[in-house]
Design goal:
Shape: globular
CATH architecture of the largest domain: Orthogonal Bundle
CATH class of the largest domain: Mainly Alpha
Structural class: mainly alpha
Order of helices and strands: HHHHHHHHHHH
Strand content: under 5%
Number of helices: 11
Radius of gyration: 22 Å
Helix content: over 70%
Number of strands: 0
Distance between the termini: 26 Å
Number of domains: 2
């Protein structure tokens, strides 16, 4: 067995040991605040994944709450990327403009997202628009600032070489500047992905009629600890899967960068 596969087995063995330890302790303690994993998994199955095959095993509760939450996460991230990457590249290639805007950017980045919730509620009312706006505001800064750093750090020799080959501005942007900025941009994507799930839950807790955060609020108000832990575990699984998808996309898009770094 290769070392890489051995590490994979060890990681999952540690996780399995932790789950077994939790199961044994929770079963022995009988605490209503910490239900055993078997009850949590059974509740998750009954609540979200016991639907018909035609609906990919998703129940009506899953389509009414889990899918809307994922839709808000993807919408918020898509808007943050659509704004943050082009703006970051433009600012990264304009040092003078960046120096003037840097205090404003750092001030806005330092604002806690929770303090902006009342502003978004006033602007967009309680609903999907407010929730997506919250996600966008919290996730755009890692993407924007990392993209600025990446675009500003383009090797001048590469740019001079591109000019020597008479590449147009657009060609230099597409084939030199954007690829050089992507590694830093993906670092921002990873941070923003984790933040998006947190902000999604926060926005739905503030005021929503559906979503995972809405279910967490209901579980807390009704003291249904099994449901509360089910939503927490579901968020962990979603975060793991989304991070894995992003890591796979990063490996494909930045295969050239990884190869050069190893060399």
């Amino acid at each position: 067995m290769s070392w890489k596969r051995m590490r994979w087995v060890i990681r999952w063995a540690v996780l399995a040991a932790g789950v077994v330890a939790w199961q044994l302790w929770a079963s022995a303690a009988g605490s209503s605040f910490f239900p055993p994993p078997s009850k949590i998994v059974n509740r998750m199955y009954q609540l979200w994944f016991s639907g018909p095959v035609a609906h990919v095993f998703l129940t009506p509760d899953a389509t009414a709450n889990v899918l809307p939450s994922l839709g808000r996460v993807f919408a918020g991230l898509a808007i943050a990327v659509a704004i943050g990457v082009p703006l970051g590249i433009a600012l990264g290639r304009s040092p003078v403009v960046t120096s003037y805007l840097s205090p404003l950017l750092q001030f806005a980045r330092a604002l806690p997202v929770v303090t902006m919730a009342p502003v978004f509620i006033v602007l967009f009312k309680i609903g999907t628009q407010m929730e997506v706006a919250t996600i966008v505001f919290g996730t755009i800064w890692p993407i924007l600032l990392n993209t600025i750093d990446g675009a500003a750090a383009v090797d001048p020799v590469q740019l001079e070489t591109a000019r020597a080959f008479r590449m147009s501005r657009l060609a230099r942007l597409v084939w030199v500047i954007v690829p050089a900025a992507l590694p830093k941009a993906f670092a921002g994507f990873r941070l923003s992905l984790s933040l998006s799930l947190i902000l999604m839950v926060f926005a739905e807790l503030v005021g929503s009629s559906n979503g995972i955060g809405y279910e967490m609020s209901n579980a807390s108000n009704s003291f249904d600890m099994t449901l509360l832990w089910s939503t927490i575990v579901l968020l962990g699984i979603l975060g793991y899967l989304l991070n894995g998808l992003l890591a796979g996309a990063e490996r494909r898009v930045l295969a050239w960068h990884t190869t050069n770094r190893r060399d």
